């Protein structure tokens, strides 16, 4: 066992504090930039090491008492020991730094981070695991379960469902998604208030007099349906046929929703005009995009596929809104997209307080249409 004394210089993306010993980075969870700590080195690599916190010798003024009895053991939250204001500052800085380091972007036009109105009790769904009579979450960096009676970052309705599940005499081993409502079981944002703030932000970013919106990874049409008044036509694409079915249920005549492979359907719409979907000449391939075309991409954590990046670069819709839940893959994609687009703004949103997760919305404009 090797104990080292460190000054924490920064909090890296993912939530680990970073200190240095003889220039070598040592990552220590549950620490805050500026703190002096003692840590046990538990994993030594050539370029870096991992440590576990032993003692906080000089604490940050931003250190607070975590309200959750499972914090530090449960792998869900990383920041309950940090004041909310400093959590926001950390996430803003991490977003900027990741875009600069991975995306090689200079002069990133960062906007202030949009906070969550609720720092606890915001999650409208959780997934718990049942095994051998225990029901709860996995421990950090392991597949060992912690028995959880209540999750403080979840809504009361979710915790009631958790209590009902725990009260059952026999619960089969497996995974259980617990929800605050009985709405269709398709993907939706976890934090209702911040999802609405994201919608309002995107409304502000989209120019006036728009003709066509192509909303990829559209889910049930959360964004598309709230932007209808800004467009003549709306096309939503998602692989989830149940989400698309829900989107179609109350669709207007100017909405078209397509279930299928996002790569293939987007290519068909951009290159062929999506005649089969009942939409005429969306973007004529011979002339490129028109000033009235907007594309929204909200991909999974893996980011855009190479094929979608190429499609977007080749046809360069006038306005591109990229919503990301993973800044590193966002940075990778923006590095390629900047060949045809100007990045007008980058706005982090705190969709997941107390965790290391960051949501980001980027507004891009095709260089050919930039002022």
Write a structural description:
The protein has 371 residues and is α/β, with parallel strands linked by helices. Helix content is 24%, strand content 28%. The chain has eight helices and 17 strands. It has helices at 84-101, 156-167, 192-205, 222-226, 241-249, 262-272, 306-315, 327-337; strands at residues 2-7, 10-11, 17-21, 24-28, 36-44, 48-58, 125-131, 134-138, 145-147, 174-179, 212-216, 233-238, 255-259, 293-297, 319-324, 341-349, 359-366. A hairpin with a 3-residue loop joins strand 5 and strand 6 (48-58). Helix 1 (84-101) packs parallel to helix 8 (327-337) and helix 6 runs parallel beside helix 7. The longest helix has 18 residues, at 84-101. The N and C termini lie far apart (60 Å).
